[in-house]
Write a structure and sequence with these properties.
The complex is a heterotrimer of chains A (179), B (604) and C (250). Helices cover 31% and strands 20% of the residues of chain A. In chain A, the strands form two sheets. A five-stranded parallel beta sheet of chain A has the order 2-1-3-5-7, sandwiched between helices. In chain A, strands 4-6 form a two-stranded antiparallel ribbon. Chain A starts with a strand and ends in a 15-residue tail after the last helix. Chain B is built from 23 helices and 14 strands. In chain B, strand 7, helix 13 and strand 8 form a beta-alpha-beta unit. With 250 residues, chain C is an alpha+beta fold. Chain C is built from six helices and nine strands; from the N terminus they run E-E-H-E-E-E-H-H-E-H-E-E-E-H-H. The chains are: A alpha/beta (179), B alpha/beta (604), C alpha+beta (250). Chains in contact: A-B, A-C, B-C. Chains B and C meet through helix 3, helix 4, helix 18, helix 19 and helix 20 of B and helix 2 and strand 7 of C. Chain C: One of its GO terms (molecular function) is DNA binding. Chain C: This is NAD-reducing hydrogenase HoxS subunit gamma. Chain C: Keywords: 4Fe-4S, Homeobox, Iron, Iron-sulfur, Metal-binding, Oxidoreductase. Chain C: Its EC number is 1.12.1.2.
């Protein structure tokens, strides 16, 4: 048996729905784990990505921290995959893209009654939001995309097994979905 | 409330509109001409008038908005009492147009593309205005101003501030020189008006067609279709009416020869159209004049009137019963695409200038779906000369497949920009020598959609065998950055795409973004490969020539001047099109933060 | 004997006046298309139906069928172009499928599936296109418009109302409605209009009927568009003016 492929996963501006879908491959996780091992991932609690064969990134890029994490993945992963609608086209978070960020922050923290007592949070611990939400491929080079909101477990399974087998992944009718 | 609701539309306004619509016989096909006159009268097309006009012409108001919004010189919202548009061809830029526009904006306290708060003035850019030999140029309320410099801009600012009516501005501002540097059989022609027509009438219509065919004359608009074959096909096509259309929508950046022909040889143009009418059996002709040449309208109308008085137009021309023909001038309103013949016909019909699906072609289904012969200004002139000289003598000029002479519009880095007439077959090098060009890096032949010729190819010859051209000849010396030339052309195509088909509408915009990305220093090799992919899509799937050639400037300059792209690239495989740290600026401003975590590096 | 041409090696008979796509669909051969609708005169704007004829690329919906033509359609070179065109349309508008009532019944989406388009690829333009919810029964979501003009044509040619038109030029081109206020509520559109039925994407929607079919049972959940377009060809309206092939029939 050859060396296991090392896989890292993360969620940026996403809802972890794609990660739930990864878990939904259920008992097939066992044969999968014969072929791969996880590096940085919510499943392992490893905080930083080391050299990997495959990186799976869920969610778009909406703040400075997302950029740092994405850069870390691009630097360490031979193959970087955008998984899910948000990673591919910004998805729900990108629905703010036609609005001015300043007006959004004003509306949420200053105009509307809320928790911050008329103050936009400025703690250096918090990542600053970008003026627009970007799909991953607008920030770094992305090698593959698995569409869906979320992609089904079957789609993820098919895609990963194709990839691991060295085949150009194809989803085909029923597995390729944008919703 | 829209500010234009304040436009007083009282009884006299109502009467003015009634009269305007009546003058155009309440025909919806005159819509563009009506809108142009409304624009001239009010400075924009008021909301209220759109509603009134829709009723008077019995068309939906959405159609009026649809047409008006297609043409860049028509405005559905107030756009300033003085509307300044700087010509944005690369040759204007090379002559310093951008700093001059900046100066004017500064002095009038406004940003490009915006209307000043008091509604006095707006400043923007427009595609080439055809004054490349005497730029930088601008249009003010549709009138061309040439030879801009620091002082002239200051004077214009004063005139605008003082609200001086355009009629009282110094005439010198509006002077357009012909700049004829080399003339030949066309520019030297001294045929008396009607002379050729008289001869043609005696020999007969069929003979006209045969002689033009025998002369080998090909269209001078660039595509080079055989004029005689076109006239013959139009003549043989079944129809209720036949039409003759002269394409004077000279929009290809860097071309200005039709401007000079319409100034110096209008009789040849109209004589050629009348000959064509005789040949194809047309009673009605149109000259479609680009909006930028608005100043030529009155002089041309005077020529038409003189020809009517001389029985060279109207009923029973030269006393020949049944030979009735007259010419109407239609003005364009800022849409390069209308130079494409089927888009031009749509525009003549008062519609958006969207190229039609072909087949059928205009010779069988043209204006109002009737057989129509559409030819370039220069082609009509050449037809007269070919008939006058006889096929054999005409064929002796030029080359085997490109007979006769050609007007070349020379601009850019040379001592003597202007109009040069040569027999076809002249080499690029000969023209460069004649116009006093030194240290030439490249020549853009036939405009942005044409070919970028580098020094190694200067022995190539103009003609349909080698370098077909509508006449533009823009010269760039070794101080120029050919990447910036290509970027200017790419912006032009994106601005002028009609938006009908997916590849051109979206592709030209993406191409523009990519060129801007490279210019901003964010480009990578990945972007160059994306340009090549875009080119494949645009070239193979676009609806018309605009989309099919929109990548040419990039491909040609990439071929000859690849380092001018590469020296702007980052040595990265990929980089975002935007500034990562800059995209946190708004959040920094809103939170008052400036700590290390409030900044982003491009790559870690 | 009918005249014929060759499509990917198959013999396709045609009637005089038919275009290449019309003859192909009638003969049971699918060519991808988006702005073409069998009840309307071919338009030729989306360019999805681009084929290669004697080495030249042309839109098959507007290309008149001629005897002896050699047409290529199902080749990777053309499908690659079609993929780019679909990607361009996704990049141009704001297509957020998970929130769209038309998802599962959308032609653009179904074409993306069939052509195995995994991502937009290009940089998104994210245009600002406010909705028009002024009408009590009908919603217009311009974010999804692909400018195919089917509603413009249907409203003008079938409904005789001219409710829709296109405004602007180039990348700023957009759909407008025929009202001084610019609002749909001030037009004479009605739910039974043909214009309500022809939108291939999710721009023109009847209110209060969204998401009525569960995921898994929607039109293109079942079979790919390449199979279904053939079922419909040549698509005809029934006596009631309803088009079996059109989505969103109230």
């Amino acid at each position: 048996m050859s060396k296991k492929l090392r896989v890292a996963t993360t969620s940026l501006a996403g809802c972890f729905g794609c990660h739930m879908s990864i878990l939904d491959i259920d008992e097939r996780l066992f044969p999968l784990l014969e072929l791969i091992e996880f590096d940085r991932s919510p499943l392992t609690d490893i905080k930083h990505c080391g050299p990997c064969d495959i990186g799976l990134v869920e969610g778009g890029v909406c703040n400075a921290e997302n950029v740092h994490v994405l850069h870390e993945f691009r630097k360490n992963c031979k193959i970087l995959i955008a998984i899910g609608a948000c990673a591919i086209n910004g998805g729900l978070p990108a629905q703010r893209n036609h609005l001015d960020l300043g007006s959004c922050l004003t509306e949420v923290y200053l105009t509307e009654p809320g928790l911050m007592h008329g103050h936009i949070p400025n703690d250096p611990e918090l990542p600053l939001p970008l003026d627009k939400v970007h799909p991953l491929h607008e920030v770094v080079k992305i090698d593959y995309f698995i569409p869906g909101c979320p992609p089904s477990a079957d789609a993820i399974w098919k895609f990963l097994t194709d990839l691991i087998a060295g085949k150009t992944p194809e989803l085909g009718h029923g597995l390729i979905k944008y919703d | 409330m829209l500010p234009d609701n304040e436009i007083r539309f009282d009884a006299s306004g109502q009467a003015w509109l009634d009269q305007l619509v009546q003058r155009h016989q309440s025909r919806a096909s005159q819509l563009l001409q009506i809108l142009r006159e409304i624009q001239e009268h009010f400075g924009h097309i008021p909301h209220r008038i759109v509603t009134e006009l829709a009723q008077k012409l019995s068309i939906p108001r959405a159609r009026i908005e649809s047409v008006a919004s297609f043409y860049s010189f028509l405005h559905l919202k107030p756009h300033g009492e003085y509307r300044v548009l700087f010509s944005d061809n690369i040759t204007d830029r090379m002559l310093g147009s951008l700093p001059l526009m900046e100066l004017m904006c500064q002095q009038l306290w406004l940003q490009p593309g915006k209307v000043s708060e008091d509604g006095l003035v707006s400043i923007g850019t427009t595609s080439c205005t055809g004054m490349c030999d005497q730029g930088p140029a601008l249009l003010i309320n549709g009138r061309s101003v040439t030879k801009l410099n620091h002082q002239r801009v200051q004077e214009i600012v004063q005139l605008i501030r003082n609200r001086t009516p355009l009629a009282d501005w110094p005439a010198d501002f509006f002077r357009v020189e012909d700049n004829i540097r080399r003339s030949g059989l066309l520019l030297d022609s001294a045929l008396a008006p009607g002379e050729l027509l008289r001869a043609a009438l005696s020999s007969g219509a069929l003979n006209v067609v045969e002689s033009i065919k025998a002369s080998g004359l090909r269209g001078r608009g660039g595509a080079g279709y055989f004029t005689g074959l076109k006239w013959e096909a139009c003549r043989n096509a079944q129809g209720v009416e036949h039409y003759v259309v002269c394409n004077a929508d000279e929009g290809e950046p860097g071309t200005f020869k039709d401007r000079v022909l319409l100034t110096r040889q209008p009789d040849l143009v109209f004589e050629g159209m009348t000959l064509c009418a005789l040949a194809v059996g047309a009673k009605k002709g149109f000259l479609y004049l680009r909006g930028e040449y608005r100043y030529l309208l009155e002089p041309l109308q005077a020529v038409l009137q003189r020809r009517r008085n001389d029985k060279l137009l109207g009923t029973s021309i030269l006393g020949q019963a049944g030979f009735d023909f007259d010419i109407e001038i239609h003005l364009g309103a800022g849409a390069y695409i209308c130079g494409e013949e089927s888009a031009l016909i749509e525009s003549l019909e008062g519609k958006r200038g969207v190229p039609r699906n072909r087949p059928p072609f205009p010779v069988t289904h043209g204006y109002l779906q009737q057989p129509t012969a559409v030819d370039n200004v220069e082609t009509f002139c050449q037809a007269v000369l070919a008939l006058h000289m006889g096929a054999e003598k005409y064929r002796a000029i030029g080359t085997a497949k490109s007979t006769g002479s050609k007007l070349i519009s020379v601009s850019g880095d040379c001592q003597r920009p202007g109009i040069y007439e040569y027999p076809f077959g002249v080499s690029v090098r000969e023209i460069l020598r004649d116009c006093g060009a030194v240290n030439t890096l490249a020549v853009q032949v036939s405009g942005p959609s044409g070919v970028c010729v580098a020094e190694s190819e200067f022995d190539r010859r103009l003609g349909f065998e080698d370098l077909p051209t509508a006449g533009a000849f823009m010269i760039f010396d070794d101080s120029r950055d050919l990447f910036e030339v290509a970027r200017n052309f790419v912006h032009f195509f994106a601005h002028e795409s009609c938006g009908f088909c997916t590849p051109c509408r979206v592709g030209t915009s993406i191409l523009k973004q990519t060129m801007d990305k490279i210019a901003a220093g964010h480009g990578t090799r990945y972007d160059l490969s994306e340009v090549e992919n875009l080119d494949r899509v645009l070239q193979t799937t676009s609806h018309c020539g605009l989309g099919r050639t929109a990548c040419n400037p990039v491909l040609h300059t990439l071929k000859h001047f690849r380092p001018s792209y590469e020296n702007k690239l980052k040595s990265l495989m990929f980089s975002p099109a935007f500034d990562l740290d800059g995209s946190l600026a708004r959040a920094r401003q809103m939170t008052g933060r400036n700590d290390a975590g409030a900044h982003l590096k491009e790559i870690e | 004997m009918k005249e014929t041409f060759l499509l990917d090696g198959s013999t396709i008979p045609f009637e005089p006046g038919q275009t290449v796509i019309q003859a192909a669909l009638a003969a049971g051969h699918y060519i991808p298309h988006l702005c073409y609708h069998p009840e309307f005169k071919p338009h030729g704007s989306c360019k999805l139906c681009t084929v290669k004829i004697n080495g030249r690329t042309v839109a098959s919906c507007t290309m008149p069928a001629e005897a002896g033509l050699q047409v290529e359609s199902e080749i990777e070179e053309l499908n690659a172009l079609r993929r780019s065109l679909v990607q361009m349309l996704f990049a141009e508008g704001n297509h957020f499928c998970p929130s769209c009532e038309k998802s599962g019944n959308c032609l653009l989406q179904a074409l993306g599936y069939d052509l195995e388009v995994h991502a937009t690829g290009f940089r998104h333009l994210y245009p600002d296109r406010p909705l028009d919810a002024s009408h009590p029964d009908i919603l217009l979501d311009f974010n999804r418009c692909i400018l195919c003009e089917l509603c413009v044509r249907a409203s003008s040619e079938v409904d005789g109302k001219n409710v829709f038109a296109l405004s602007g030029r180039g990348i700023t081109k957009h759909l407008i409605v025929n009202a001084e206020s610019g609002k749909l509520s001030d037009t004479n559109i009605s739910l039974t209009d043909k214009a309500m039925q022809v939108c291939p994407v999710g721009v023109i929607l009847p209110k209060r009927v969204g998401f009525s079919v569960p995921i898994g049972e929607r039109r293109y959940d079942q079979r790919p568009i390449s199979a279904q377009a053939l079922d419909d060809a040549p698509r005809q309206t029934d006596a009631g003016g309803n088009c079996a092939a059109c989505e969103g029939t109230p």
